[in-house]
Predict the 3D structure of the following.
Amino acid sequence: MALALPIDAVLPEVLTMLRERGAVVLEAPPGSGKTTRVPIALSRDVEGQVWVLEPRRVAARAAAQRVASELGESVGDTVGYAMRMDRRESPRTRVLYVTEALLTRRLDDFEGIGAVVLDEFHERSIHTDVALAWCRMLRRTRPSLRLVVMSATLDGEAIARFLDCPRVRAEGTLHLVDVRYLDRKDERPLELRVAAAVRAVTGDVLAFLPGIGEIERTAALLTDFEVLPLHGELDAAAQDRALRLGARPAWGPRRVVLATNVAETSVTVEGISAVVDCGLVRRPAYDAWSGLPTLDLVPIARDSAIQRAGRAGRLGPGTCLRMYSRADFDLRPAQTPAEVKRIDLAATVLALGGRELEWFEAPSAGAWKAAMVLLERMGALSEGRRTPIGDTMASLPLPPRLARVLIESAALGVAREGARLVTLFGRKLGGDLVDRALDGEGDAHEARRLEGLVGGGGPRVKEAEEALRRACLAGFPDRVARREGGRVRFADGGAAEVEVGRDGYVVVTEVDRVGTRVRARTLTPVDDDWLVDRAVVRETLRWAGTRVEAREELCFGELVLDASVGAGDRDAVAMMLFEHARPTLHKLVPDWERGLALLQRVAFLRRRGVVLPELDLELAARALCEGRRSFDDLGTVSLAAAVLGALPDASLVDRLAPETVRLPGKPRATVSYDGDEPYVEARMQDFFGLADGPRIADGTALVLHLLAPNHRPVQVTRDLAGFWQRHYPALRKELMRRYPRHAWPEDPRVATPRA
């Protein structure tokens, strides 16, 4: 259902839909008042508090202040806000603006919450996706729970189908914004381009930049302006100064607010008539190659660009200068990609305690499994469910890794030092944070608060330095690495650059990544003895010239803690020896030809129907390698013995397919079985004295290769008697002429062979 009416006009219809269906999707443009009007109206229609999820602290606090002001009250009365380290509410509070992570930590306790409003859903943070799926599931058992999904740029139809609820479109009071583009390519540094763009527009300006560094560098170039930064790291007073510019005195300098995307949605920067949009944002992501989180500089999607432009038309007509071309804008994706597809999911999996959800857009199975594995390594999960450690981690207002560091510090009796250490993470300090914490660095006020959350912990069982390093290992078990000169090699694979220092084992707690370059920024040494309990014994084999060498390695992931000479797996050693010896086995095994001939004799008898096992040359050759590891060892084996050992009755082969037969001129003439029929190859004189050809034990007549004195074939026949009678007389004359020194009797059947 779409209602093209102002927000106040559609509110009665929205409330009716909520009573009837329990959920509604509300689409309304920037400046329509959805963030401030809907929650307060909803609070008069439901039991319990209305929680409004905002993507940023600035937006949550600003919205609460705006609504409280409109009610003529102070923040904390009817309307309040709650976020990490800052909470303003009372028993009278009916509407609570909260940062999204706060709801994720309260999934198991929705007591007192009558409605949830997901504001600016188009930003698709992981917390809003969790809240959406969780509320959808919870409404099956708590039908009184109301759910509103709101955004100015949203695929409302898809969300409405997911929730099976109505969709409402409201109009806003947004003034005309003249959107301009820069088609000329400019290769100068970003801060120079933004400074030039600020001077190219008129009035007070809101300029969007990717991060604090860019804000500071741009501010240094705008000394003729009144510059006000706006980002999430500022204190509340500094943020308020940027948000509440008011009307500028005629004689004052132009003002410019340099902001990250905290000013993109849900807030109004007073007095702004122009927006400069650099088109970039730093977006949290997860690098599957390194297993490490990243903060990538990427172009914004079209929905974010529309939100940014809307900031210029909140209070009157305005201008938006996009520092990219119209073609660039048109080619950008319509929607900001969901965080659930691109960030580390450990915090989400921990919050859910391993429980499955029906997602609007499901995370990848690989990312979910990786988060489960990490939490199991930290001791937070066991068999898919939270452990007591996991329960404590989930209760702390910290990311899972830092929560684990704090818990382990407390368990080792250094809660105070551990709390100070935790406050140092994320500040891009570099070096060893443990040393910094022990030197007294860190936020003392926040450290005391965190220490109070875990109590005094256990008795002090370690020196503080060792305890803190062990705590880092507990929180970063997948970041163990070995430092080798200017690089560290991670136990889980991959490597990173590092400042040259003492080689040894470390835990890398923070990294920077630019493109394919990964640099370890903070790391702390650990003792390899601490890794032994979680190490595994792994046997490795390598080929060393003419032999297999085995090593027994004690490994933590891909890092080898210790190694010694080992025996190696018997089958694996034999296989490696066979693969390397295969091309020259006929030279290495002394009786290779005899053994090969024996296999051929067995194959012949099987073709004749004799019941014998099927023997294969490759299998027999592999068997020769069992229990051996070098070419020299193969010089002591017997292929023939290996074949005979596989036969139930070796004498049967000798009886039915003898290795040799007796000829008048050759007591041991070899019988060959390498063709379709067995044959004997010998000089014609060796057959003198035989009326017919020899046979083997089963009566098979051998094929005879009759050779001239030069050992070249004269005749091939199985019928020696017929040869003597029909062919020999004519051949005799030719043979006498060619070989006069040899005897060629008239009747070879009764002649005596001579050399």
Notes: The first helix runs from residue 7 to 21. Residues 577-656 form one domain.
